[in-house]
Amino acid sequence: MYISLLEEVYNFLVEKIGMPDLNTRTENVNLVPLSNIDYRDKIRGAMVSLAIGDAFGSSWEGQQPKEIEHINHFLKGERNTASLKGTWQTTTVILFAESLIINQTFNPEDLANRFIRQPIVGMDKVMEQFTLNYRDHRMEWYRCGIASVEAGAAIRGVPLALVNYGDFTTLKLIGGIQTIITHMDETAVAASILFSSAVAYLLNTPAFSMQSKNDFNLFIDTLCKSIKGIETKVYPTGKNGEIANLYIMVNRILKEWIDKSISIEEIKKQWGSSANSLEAIPLSLYIFLKNPNDYEKTLKECLTMRETDIIVTMVLALLGAYLGFNNIPKGYINKLDIDKEILTLSDRLFELSLKNKSNNPYRRMRDQIEIERSQDELDKLLWLGIKYNKEEEYEMSIKYFEELITKSPDFKKNERVKLHIIEAYEGLGSKLLDNEAYEDALRCFKKALIYDLNHPTILCDMAVTYLNIDDLDKAEKYARRAVEIAPEYEIGREVLEGIKSLQNKS
């Protein structure tokens, strides 16, 4: 999605407001779309399940186990006997989706404008302060965010993952930029990128395929890779004040929770369960990974949470992206007040996602095949160049090496390949020198020097060639340079002494 334009915006924000450096310290994540996945169903699942989590979490959070069974029975029923609405979180997700669809790309200023034009009921303090700064104080959109580590921007960013599930670079840039509109802290930026990466990863994961601990660890390692190096600060976390940041919380502490199968209640007591990204993100991932293949069981687990509707929303967004729309019990969907609107937005997001060629598994497969074919051809050229070099058929060797360099200039930087090429040019040059074809020999030696200006053997060959055409000054120049570079090079010293002797006689 217009990478160059996104990079311009990103560089502008780095310069103007000190946005975290996403390019130089963040590793690339290879998101791989699959041809056997119905992405329309997956995108619908993520959006609808997010809305279910927000609506159910805000209405029924903090229930006792006995009550949950009754509530779940009611919610799961096919009859449309309720019409539950989400909170400001669903509203911001819808606004982001609408902005992407209408602009057919990411426009941060348009998104900021939508936040202040659309009435957002019950918004948190971060959104309130942003609105005050942008609408009332008339500040630039990129200066209105506040230093907050809360996870609101992370859940808001789900739509960007739904249109960039095969394009981590775009996902990362949009994830960072959309976050700083309201949340300026680097941990909030990391949280947004990590959560969007999680949604994209799960879109590319077939439903019910995550069965083992190895599957979970691969998922977690990918998420950690997505934010590695973004954070430069650490915070006291948990009951014991352990020093950590989001990367540490997910890479080490979340894995410890999984290894020890710690109860959710224990995690809440020891580490907290607020909207702070350092608490909300790891706990959401943990609850999701406890029962990723059972929607009903995970939802009931979420409903035991108190005052943490954002965690419920995050968990179910992940679950929907993984299982897809068709695997969500229809009774839950029927209780949503905005299910039709969400489905329409989901379908438009799917259509937008098709415009990004990185999301197309068939194009990715074709591109990969082309890369493999190209690599096979390059390997063959390299092999032939080395083969003819060893057989002292230097002209053939040079022919294949030159073709190799033309097709892939990066081979010029490969030290081992450079040595083979120099050897081929030197071999042909020496043959020409023996045959008294001095001008042709010089051309070969000069081509060899392109790959190493300080190669003492080639410099000495140049000196000998100039000596044969009676150009003592140039002969002395190259011989002296060879000796200066490699004083221990005996042939070079002998050639230089011979040239000096001839100069003295003349």
The overall strand count is: 2
Shape: elongated
Average of the residue pLDDT scores? 89
Write out the CATH superfamily name of the largest domain.
ADP-ribosylation/Crystallin J1
Number of domains: 2
Could you say which structural class the secondary elements and strand pairing correspond to? mainly alpha
What's the main sheet like?
2 strands, antiparallel
Which parts are unreliable, with pLDDT below 50 for 5 consecutive residues or more? none
Q: How many distinct helices?
A: 25
The top-level CATH class of the largest domain is Mainly Alpha
In short:
The protein is mainly α and 506 residues long.
Task: Give your account of this protein's structure.
Helix content is 68%, strand content 1%. The chain is built from 25 helices and 2 strands. It has a two-stranded antiparallel sheet with strand order 1-2. The termini are far apart.
